[in-house]
Amino acid sequence: MRVSILVLGLSILASPVAAQCGGSWSGFLSGIRSEIRAAGLNATQADAFLAGARQDQKVLRADRAQGVFRKDFLQFASAVISQNRLTNGARNAKRYKSTFDRIEREYGVSRGVLLAFWALETDFGQVQGNFNTRNALLTLAHDCRRPELFRPQVIAAAKLYQRGDFDPQREKGAWAGEIGQVQMLPADILRNGVDGDGDGHVRLKTSAPDALVSGAKMLRGLGWRKGEPWMQEIVLPANLDWSKTGLDTQASTADWARMGVRARSGKLAQGLPGSVLLPMGRKGPAFMVYPNFRVLFEWNKSFVYVTSAAYFATRLEGAPRLDPGHPDPGLSAAQMSVLQQKLARRGYDVGKIDGILGAKTRPAVQAEQKRLGLPADAWPTKALLNAL
């Protein structure tokens, strides 16, 4: 089952016209048809692409029910990283060794990263979603929450149909319109789709090489740096200045070493900037994350998802099981919502009040911890909530 959240960044195609939404379904489809024609499809192709199109209320319900991201890092990681997935990851690494060798040679993306996303997105291609992709994209483009994100994807799907790589009646995938074994949107397939198995087509649903090479090309286009690490587990000194932790602060690994930070196994990467990431505060797991870690947020915007995927990727490449530590109890979803409201009233941009400790809420938490004289490790506790 696909668990990632859809909030797109650099991987989206810009729409040539202002996004329109709402209104009658027939009027909306008429506007879409005009835009499809403007994109180069003839009248017959446009009509065939839209034939039988309907709204899917299940898509809207799925869009509004993403409570899985309210889990903390250890809860989420333990739920998605199983021994079965580690075993299957090793098996697939061996089965597609030549594909991964090609990927690392041409794109510089480590096989562990692609294996992790392949596992988390579709369980190595086993669960790719059962939503009609065209209808899902049209439904989300008509809905007025994020039409500017989904309308271009409808046009991209029409272009895939025009070249023979998309069946509007039968193409199925995730509720948010992603297709194939690593769950890519139509616009990303147009830009990054690669025929990885040499059969003359880009088939992300049925061809693992096509899906993996296409995913690697997309990551490289988003800024992946060849041959560099993305994350490693670290051990921290008890007297570290916690306000220096988090993604907003970077220092050289040499500087971190001078502050007493060391790798749990091996050595810190040399000559790279890094950030100390404490997904559950100073008493929980600790990681050094490098520039490539930040690229993963262009694949998925969820902090807990990306951190779990990055850690899973290290495990798939031989890293030991992490030290969970003894983190302080976190907040419930309801308490997190109250905290976000309090932070918003103080002028912080925490994004949507959703009870999720995301990338925008964490810096606000850390700033208030520092102001109040609490350990500024960006992990919200009842002590912080009460102090506010």
TrEMBL record:
<feature type="domain" description="Transglycosylase SLT">
    <location>
        <begin position="28"/>
        <end position="313"/>
    </location>
</feature>
<dbReference type="InterPro" id="IPR031304">
    <property type="entry name" value="SLT_2"/>
</dbReference>
<dbReference type="InterPro" id="IPR036365">
    <property type="entry name" value="PGBD-like_sf"/>
</dbReference>
<dbReference type="Pfam" id="PF01471">
    <property type="entry name" value="PG_binding_1"/>
</dbReference>
<dbReference type="InterPro" id="IPR043426">
    <property type="entry name" value="MltB-like"/>
</dbReference>
<feature type="signal peptide">
    <location>
        <begin position="1"/>
        <end position="19"/>
    </location>
</feature>
<dbReference type="InterPro" id="IPR036366">
    <property type="entry name" value="PGBDSf"/>
</dbReference>
<dbReference type="GO" id="GO:0008933">
    <property type="term" value="F:peptidoglycan lytic transglycosylase activity"/>
</dbReference>
<dbReference type="Pfam" id="PF13406">
    <property type="entry name" value="SLT_2"/>
</dbReference>
<dbReference type="GO" id="GO:0009253">
    <property type="term" value="P:peptidoglycan catabolic process"/>
</dbReference>
<protein>
    <recommendedName>
        <fullName>Lytic transglycosylase</fullName>
    </recommendedName>
</protein>
<feature type="domain" description="Peptidoglycan binding-like">
    <location>
        <begin position="334"/>
        <end position="388"/>
    </location>
</feature>
<dbReference type="InterPro" id="IPR002477">
    <property type="entry name" value="Peptidoglycan-bd-like"/>
</dbReference>
<keyword id="KW-0732">Signal</keyword>
<dbReference type="InterPro" id="IPR011970">
    <property type="entry name" value="MltB_2"/>
</dbReference>
<dbReference type="InterPro" id="IPR023346">
    <property type="entry name" value="Lysozyme-like_dom_sf"/>
</dbReference>
